[in-house]
Amino acid sequence: MSLVSDITVTVGGSPMTVLVARPPVPTPCPAVVLTHHRGGIDEFTQRTAERLAANGFIAAAPRFYHRRPAGEDTAVSRQSLNDAEVVADIAAVVDHLRADRSVRAAALAIMGHCAGGRMAFLGAASNPHFKAAVVFYGGNIFKGEGAGRPPPIELAGNIRGAMLGLFGKEDTNPSPADVAAIDAELTRLGIRHQFHSYDGAGHAFQNFTDKTRYRQAVAEDAWAKALAFLKGELRS
Predict the structure, then answer these.
(1) Alpha-carbon distance 118 to 70, whole Å?
(2) What residues does 207 pair with on adjacent strands?
(3) CB 129: neighbour CB atoms within 10 A?
(4) Could you tell me which of 124, 115, 30 has the C-alpha nearest to residue 79?
(5) The CATH number of the domain where 156 resides is what?
(6) Residues 50, 159: Cα–Cα separation, whole Å
(7) Which residue, among 90, 88, 89, has the nearest Cα to 111 in the 3D structure?
(8) Tens digits of per-residue pLDDT, 73-115?
């Protein structure tokens, strides 16, 4: 059973809480920065962190909305985020993990769903310490967020590790055309990657709390692919 707690890291002089799920093992483990979806650190995000921990990873999920008023609707909070803040938050978590003796500092990955999938792509393209990235149906990769910020796709040449992308063919953001364009750009740049797109699935197909979008068989297949990818890329 995983061990779940909150820690606090400092970003720009201000505190940010981070949900951390740890496997019940004493040896140093690989770690995954889990970038939350629009709903924030909700049941889906916590269960995702716990499942990563159950499979041998330390999962650290920063609360990106820490600059917003408590209790604010997460849809409003999501609109307030800008890429500079997200990159700074991710960097703070990476620094913390790299200093944690229970973490294998050379075995870090980033993973996220929906808005968090975009953040995972952005993090992989902005921080050199990630050996792997898992992007679940991350949209708006062709759009910068924040004044003067480039779209994450324009930073793709900075990606240092491999990337796994998991998408639904019935999604509109990212659409199949978007996925093909991202695939083509990563191929052009020589970024090692694997993309899988599922028939009969749209956005948020892994979110078990959204009964209209959740596709159990697809979600479990995607989990199997993600875990195999992470274990392969972060192996000793």
Answers:
(1) 24
(2) none
(3) 21
(4) 115
(5) 3.40.50.1820
(6) 27
(7) 90
(8) 999 999 999 999 999 999 999 999 999 999 999 999 999 999 9
β strands within the chain, DSSP E: 3-11, 14-22, 29-35, 58-62, 103-113, 130-136, 162-168, 193-198
Among residues 63, 46, 44, 65, the alpha carbon closest in space to that of 2 is found at 46
Containing structural domain, residue 221: 3-233
Structural domains counted in the chain: 1
Residue 176: is the preceding peptide bond cis (ω within 30°)? no
CB 142 within 8 A of CB 153: yes
d(CA 61, CA 81): 16
The percent of the chain in helix, strand and coil, each rounded to the nearest 5, is 40, 25, 35
Give CA–CA dist 200/221, Å, rounded.
Answer: 13
The DSSP secondary structure of 113-175, one letter per residue, reads: ETHHHHHHHHHHTT-TTEEEEEEES---TTS--STTPPPGGGGGGG--SEEEEEEETT-STT-
pLDDT digits (tens, 9 = 90+) for 30-74: 999 999 999 999 999 999 999 999 999 999 999 999 999 989 999
- The amino acid that residue 108 corresponds to is L
Question: HSE on the CB side for 18, CA within 13 Å?
Answer: 27
Contact 87, 62 (CB under 8 A): no
pTM: 0.96
Most distant CA atoms of the chain, gap in Å? 46
